[in-house]
Amino acid sequence: MKPATRNVYCRGLAAFQQFYSDQGSTKDFLDRVERDRLLPRIQRKRVNRVTFNGFVIWLQDRGYSPKTIRIYVGAVQSLAKYFDIPISLRYVQLPPSQPLNRKHPWTIKEVSNLLILWTNQSIRA
Q1: Is residue 124 part of a domain?
Q2: Cα(47)–Cα(37) distance, rounded to whole angstroms?
Q3: In-domain check, residue 29
Q4: Quick one: what percent of the chain has pLDDT higher than 70?
């Protein structure tokens, strides 16, 4: 794991621990998820879904960006995966991911100005 990724995941796990501290440790959370997963479907309390939705709201209330929220939830999910505890984010209300680059719809005038600049001898190398 790259140092930058490790740093972000550490911050994400620390934020989760702060969020979950009233109910126990991160280990307690993983134990509860594992126990809940082994129950018959009708008896499950969906511990991971309820907890992650609460964590997302907690992060949003503190002003975290959608990208950071997704990364922090992913950090906890990765920790669970490391311990062979599958956690699905299917029913977790994550904020939508925002594209890094948005395509710019060029107008005829903008294209014309670009061509004029491009053909201008003083700009060319």
Answers
A1: no
A2: 9
A3: yes
A4: 94
3-state secondary structure 30-77: HHHHHHHHHCCHHHCCCHHHHHHHHHHHHHHHCCCCHHHHHHHHHHHH
The one-letter code for the residue type at 28 is D
Q: Is residue 57 part of a domain?
A: yes
Going from the C-alpha of 64 to that of each of 23, 25, 71, 72, the distances in angstroms are 22, 22, 11, 10
Note if the pTM is more than 0.90: no
Judge whether 107 lies within some domain.
no
Residue 22, token pair as written in the block:
């009233």
pLDDT tens digits, residue range 39-56? 999 999 999 999 999 999
Nearest-CA neighbor of 82 among 7, 36, 13, 11? 13
Average pLDDT, the chain: 90
d(CA 75, CA 92): 14
Could you list the residue range(s) of the whole structural domain that residue 55 is in? Answer: 3-97
Q: Quick one: which of 72, 56, 57 has its CA closest to 10?
A: 72
Domains identified in the chain, total number: 1
